[in-house]
C-alpha cells in the first residue's frame, strides 16, 4: 500500500500541492485527472523524489509502512517506485536491453531480460526492429510510450506511475497499452495521469481522483471520468 499523508509540495518557492491525503492499494488502477497546471505531474515527481520538488516537513509518503520522503529518487526506485515520463527522451547508443541490464544491475540476468523483452514486446506489438535501435531513436509517440510500458514491466516495480501515457498515442496503441497494463497489474499499484476519458474506457480504473489547484477535490469510480467528459471540471472544482 502506498499511503500519502498531508502531502504539501513547493516548487521554486511556490506552493503547488496542498495537503493531499490518499491510500493506493495493490492490484488496483487509479486515474488522476484535473485541469492543466493543477499539480498532477508535481504529485508524480514528488512520489518519485525529484529533487526540485520540496516536500513540506509534515508530509508523509509511505510504501508498505516505510517512509520515503527523506529518500532520494534512486532509493525510492529501489524500494519499488517507477515513473514513466510525459515525454520520454532518446538515448543515443543505448538499446533497451542494455538499459534494462544497467537498471537491474544483476537482479535479472541478461538472458532473462532478453526473453522478457521478447515476450512483452510481442504483447505490446512493438516492432522487433525498434528493439535493435538506440532507445527511442526514430520512434513515434506511441512507440515511445510502449517502450516505457515495456521497461516498467521488466523492472517489475510495485508502484507504476504513468504521466500522460496516452498523449500522442493513437487509438490502437492505446488499446494495446491498456490491455497490457490490466494484464500485468497483479500486486501492483497503477497510477495513471490522464486528460482523457478514452484510455479509461479500456483500463476501467478502480478509482478516479480529481486534482485541481493543488488539492484533491474529488474521488469517485469510473463514472466520475464520464461525468468530467460530459460536464468538464468546473462543477467539481467550484463546490
Ligand atoms: P499538471 O501536470 O497538472 O498539468 P504540473 O504539476 O506540471 O501540472 O504544474 C502545477 C503547477 O506548478 C503549474 O502552475 C506549473 O506552472 C508549476 N510548476 C511545475 N513545475 C514547475 C517548475 N519547475 N518551476 C516553476 N513552476 C512549476
Ligand atoms: Mg503534467
What does this structure look like?
The protein is 38% helix and 26% strand. It is of the alpha/beta class. The strands form two sheets. Strands 7-8-9-3-10-11 form a six-stranded mixed beta sheet, with helices on both faces. Strands 1, 2, 4, 5 and 6 form a five-stranded antiparallel beta sheet that branches. A hairpin with a 2-residue loop joins β5 (60-63) and β6 (66-67). It binds adenosine-5'-diphosphate (ADP) and magnesium ion (MG). Magnesium ion (MG) is lined by residues 40-41, 86, 163.
User: What characteristic shape results from the CA principal axes?
Assistant: globular
How many strands? 11
Largest sheet: 6 strands, mixed
Radius of gyration: 18 Å
What's the number of helices?
A: 10
Strand content: 25-35%
Secondary-structure element string: EEEHEEEHEHHHHEHEHEEHH
What binds here, in terms of ligands, is: adenosine-5'-diphosphate, magnesium ion
The chain-level structural class is alpha/beta
Oligomer: single chain
Strands of the largest sheet, in order across it?
A: 7-8-9-3-10-11
Give start-end ranges of low-pLDDT stretches: none
Distance linking N and C termini = 30 Å
User: What is the residue-mean pLDDT, rounded to a whole number?
Assistant: 91
Considering the chains and any ligands shown, give keywords for the structure.
239 residues; alpha/beta; five-stranded antiparallel beta sheet; 10 helices; 26% strand; globular; binds adenosine-5'-diphosphate; binds magnesium ion
Blueprint (SSEs and pairs):
Blueprint (H helix, E strand, L loop, with lengths): L1 E10 L2 E11 L3 E6 L6 H9 L4 E3 L4 E4 L2 E2 L5 H7 L1 E4 L11 H9 L5 H14 L4 H4 L9 H15 L3 E5 L7 H13 L5 E5 L4 H6 L3 E6 L2 E6 L1 H10 L2 H4 L2
Parallel strand pairs: 3-9, 3-10, 7-8, 8-9
Antiparallel strand pairs: 1-2, 1-4, 1-5, 5-6, 10-11
Helix pairs in contact: 3-6, 4-6, 6-7
Bound molecules: adenosine-5'-diphosphate (ADP) and magnesium ion.
Amino acid at each position: 500500500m502506498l499511503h500519502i499523508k498531508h502531502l504539501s509540495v513547493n516548487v521554486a518557492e511556490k506552493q503547488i500541492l496542498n495537503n493531499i491525503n490518499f491510500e493506493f492499494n495493490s492490484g488496483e488502477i487509479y486515474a488522476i485527472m484535473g485541469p492543466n497546471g493543477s499539480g498532477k505531474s508535481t504529485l508524480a515527481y514528488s512520489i518519485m523524489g525529484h529533487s526540485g520538488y520540496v516536500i513540506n516537513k509534515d508530509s508523509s509518503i509511505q510504501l508498505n509502512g516505510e517512509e520515503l520522503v527523506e529518500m532520494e529518487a534512486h532509493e525510492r526506485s529501489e524500494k519499488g517506485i517507477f515513473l514513466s515520463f510525459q515525454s520520454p527522451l532518446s538515448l543515443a547508443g543505448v538499446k533497451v536491453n542494455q538499459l534494462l541490464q544497467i537498471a537491474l544491475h544483476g537482479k535479472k540476468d541478461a538472458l532473462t531480460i532478453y526473453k522478457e523483452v521478447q515476450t512483452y514486446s510481442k504483447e505490446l506489438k512493438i516492432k522487433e526492429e525498434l528493439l535493435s535501435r538506440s532507445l527511442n531513436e526514430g520512434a513515434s509517440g506511441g512507440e515511445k510510450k510502449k517502450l516505457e510500458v515495456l521497461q516498467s514491466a521488466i523492472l517489475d516495480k510495485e508502484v507504476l506511475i504513468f504521466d500522460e501515457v496516452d498523449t500522442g498515442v493513437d487509438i490502437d496503441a492505446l488499446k494495446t497499452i491498456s490491455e497490457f497494463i490490466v494484464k500485468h497489474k497483479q500486486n501492483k499499484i497503477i497510477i495513471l495521469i490522464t486528460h482523457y476519458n478514452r484510455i479509461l474506457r479500456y483500463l476501467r480504473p478502480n478509482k478516479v481522483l480529481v486534482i485541481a489547484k493543488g488539492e484533491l477535490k474529488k474521488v469517485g469510480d469510473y463514472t466520475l471520468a464520464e461525468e468530467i467528459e460530459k460536464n468538464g471540471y468546473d462543477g467539481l472544482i467550484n463546490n
